[in-house]
Amino acid sequence: MEENGDPLIVRVGTFFMVLGAGSFLLFVTSDLADQVDFDYLFIAMLLLTVGWYFRRRKAPPPASGRFSGLKNLLSKRKKGGLDKKESK
User: Fold this and answer.
1) CA of 8: how far to CAs of 12, 14, 39, 41, 59, in Å?
2) Burial class of residue 57, CB neighbours in 10 A (0-12, 13-18, 19+)
3) How many CB atoms lie within 10 A of CB 52?
């Protein structure tokens, strides 16, 4: 049912954020047409806020470990394992 692992509430949040972005685009378009309609701006702010509230429930991705070698190198240097000044 959920092929990418996101729960339904996170997907609903994404949907609201897309609708909010579309509503903001309508606001910008109405401003460019010199017929400013602030209703689009307020709807966009509301939808983006609700979408963000639902999206923040998504779990953070696991660490990839790409920089683990660099972190190990830096931690050895801080401990003094690779520092030449301490070896003299």
Assistant:
1) 6, 10, 28, 27, 13
2) exposed
3) 13
Query: 12-41 pLDDT, tens per residue?
Result: 999 999 999 999 999 999 999 999 999 999
Query: What is the phi/psi pair of residue 73, to 5°?
Result: -65, -45
- For the beta carbon of residue 47, count every other beta carbon within 10 angstroms: 20
The number of residues making up the chain comes to 88
Which residues, other chains included, contact 86 with Cβ-Cβ below 8 Å and sequence gap of 6+?
A: 80
On whether the pTM is more than 0.90, the answer is no
Confirm if 44 and 21 have CB atoms less than 8 A apart: yes
Phi, psi (deg, nearest 5) at residue 61: -65, 150
C-alpha–C-alpha distance, residues 77 and 59, integer Å: 33
The residues spanned by each domain of the chain are 1-56
